[in-house]
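STRUCTURE REQUEST FORM
Protein name: HAD-IA family hydrolase
Source organism: Aromatoleum toluolicum
Requested output: structure tokens
Priority: standard
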Amino acid sequence: MLNLQTIRAISLDLDDTLWPIWPTIERAETVLHEWLALNAPMTAARFATPRALREIRNAVELQRPDLAHDLAALRRESIRVALCSAGDDPALAEPAFELFFAERHNVTLFPDALPALEFLAARYPLVSLTNGNAELARIGLESYFVASVVAIKVGLSKPDPRIFHAAAHAAGVQPHEVLHVGDDALLDVLGARNSGMQAAWLNRTQVMWPHEERPDLELSSLGELCNALT
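Status: completed
Returned output:
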């Protein structure tokens, strides 16, 4: 059960919590492939679909574990590898990535996200906590948060307790005074619980909880979170 009396700050996951991530990534990959068709045709021909570009990105992820916390660098390197393997100019990787990255920030918020942010930010300091590379300022949500904790900047990713502790520090409170909200059972919920925080599981698709230890609160929407905190 959620202990409302101890909550002095809230940390929020971003991808698949405030917006659905895969429609955004698929659209960005399509835009990237269309750009390559015009500017690096050999690469576009060799990697004939956006899915093929994603496959080389996944291959680079396995080959470059040093980029595990930096998804932007990982994507940029995968574009460079694709260009080189096809015989196009690898210098095109930077403008190609910038195009992809801009489209990656063209997100569509879940309908409950903005009302929830307005409600929560009026009552608690909010900290975003993400393993991804979304930048709140580029999405237009920076004003709702007192801080943004990102894996690439910390050098650690969820579920490592230290990145949750960094979020608590950014909010100016102790870990046990933070409620973390996210969609991933392992990365968000168990990561937060193992860090001494309370955890709310945002289960929009109504799947079964997969672990023995349970969240402090299960939600089907962020509106339910606001109601629970009233």
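Reviewer notes: The chain has a mean pLDDT of 96. The radius of gyration is 19 Å.
Form closed.
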